[in-house]
């Protein structure tokens, strides 16, 4: 294809705009990381840019010695791992039958799901439901009520609809039941969609904050994001002889930045392992055969 002058200008403008957009996202993150490794004098003087000034790991040492950080981290990992597994199982087992034309009442169920997508339930009915189920002050309150996302369900169903019908019919002729077809044929072909849904669900669980504030009052079960909020907005650090001594030589801003890094890095580390499937999954449902 011959590139015209207009195409070249368009490409240059795209590169410049996307580059500026990328910098606007990366620079604040670099500043946060730099402050987390800088000493209190440089931070208080506002001398930290995108590179640490007066390099120190004191903020991270304080975090590692704060048991409440580790408790919140443990809870967030449990919520993210098991919550995502529940999401994928529930979404898949509902999306698959809704994608098959031979199943009765699928249109009625789709309409009901669509209603929940347009009109979400208010807070008080949700709270009363969680309370009646006995889920208050448990990690289940942050996993079970959000077992299926209506949007992700429609995306997954759209992917299943585009699977070759002949492949599924041949499996039925060979004697495969529905669960075996789903496990042996549909799921292996759905890795891009599963990876995309998994990342979306995992990020939502890892960043779970509002629901934890509503449903959990026991500090033993608060996730990392709630503990992060306490540190960022109220300067509530874990108190011990070690932390009190470290606080004398550290800037509260540096500690806050270190906590933000600790809370952000784990979910960022997951993306490279799913990048290939995630890029393919972004096209899920966009092309119809």
Could you describe the 3D structure shown?
The chain has helices at 5-36, 40-44, 58-64, 67-99, 106-118, 123-132, 150-161, 165-173, 178-189, 191-206, 210-215, 224-234, 241-247, 252-281. The chain is mainly alpha-helical and 289 residues long. It has 2 domains: 1-56; 66-281, MetI-like (MetI-like fold, Orthogonal Bundle). Mean pLDDT is 82; it is low at 285-289. InterPro entries: MetI-like, MetI-like_sf. Belongs to the binding-protein-dependent transport system permease family. It is found in: Cell membrane. It is a multi-pass membrane protein.
Largest sheet: none
Poorly predicted tracts of residues: 285-289
The counted number of beta strands is 0
Beta content comes to: under 5%
**Nearest-integer average pLDDT:** 82
The number of domains: 2
General form: globular
Please give the radius of gyration in angstroms.
24 Å
Give me the strand/helix succession.
HHHHHHHHHHHHHH
| Number of continuous helical runs | 14
Helix content: over 70%
CATH topology of the largest domain: MetI-like fold
CATH superfamily of the largest domain: MetI-like
CATH architecture call of the largest domain: Orthogonal Bundle
For the termini, the CA-CA separation is 26 Å
| CATH class descriptor name of the largest domain | Mainly Alpha
């Amino acid at each position: 294809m011959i590139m015209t002058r207009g195409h070249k200008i368009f490409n240059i403008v795209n590169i410049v705009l996307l580059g500026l957009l990328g910098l606007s996202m990366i620079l604040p993150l670099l500043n946060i990381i730099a402050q987390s490794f800088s000493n209190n004098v440089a931070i208080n003087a506002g001398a930290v840019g995108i590179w640490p000034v007066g390099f120190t790991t004191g903020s991270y040492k304080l975090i590692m010695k704060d048991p409440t950080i580790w408790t919140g981290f443990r809870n967030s990992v449990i919520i993210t791992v098991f919550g995502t597994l529940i999401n994928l199982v529930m979404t898949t087992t509902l999306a698959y039958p809704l994608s098959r034309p031979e199943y009765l009442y699928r249109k009625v169920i789709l309409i009901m799901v669509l209603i929940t997508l347009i009109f979400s339930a208010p807070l008080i009915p949700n709270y009363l439901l969680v309370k009646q189920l006995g889920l208050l002050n448990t990690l289940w309150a942050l996993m079970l009520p959000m077992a299926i996302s209506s949007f992700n369900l429609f995306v997954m169903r759209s992917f299943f609809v585009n699977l070759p019908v002949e492949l599924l019919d041949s499996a039925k002729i060979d004697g495969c039941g529905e669960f075996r077809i789903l496990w042996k044929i549909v799921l292996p072909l759905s890795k891009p969609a599963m990876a995309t849904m998994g990342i979306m669900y995992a990020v939502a669980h890892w960043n779970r904050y509002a629901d934890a504030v509503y449903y959990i009052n026991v500090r033993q079960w608060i996730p990392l994001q709630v503990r992060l909020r306490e540190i960022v907005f109220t300067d509530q650090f874990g108190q011990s002889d070690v932390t009190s001594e470290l606080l004398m030589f550290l800037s509260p801003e540096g500690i806050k930045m270190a906590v933000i890094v600790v809370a952000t890095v784990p979910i960022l580390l997951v993306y490279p392992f799913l990048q290939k499937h995630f890029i393919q999954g972004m096209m899920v449902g966009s092309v119809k055969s």
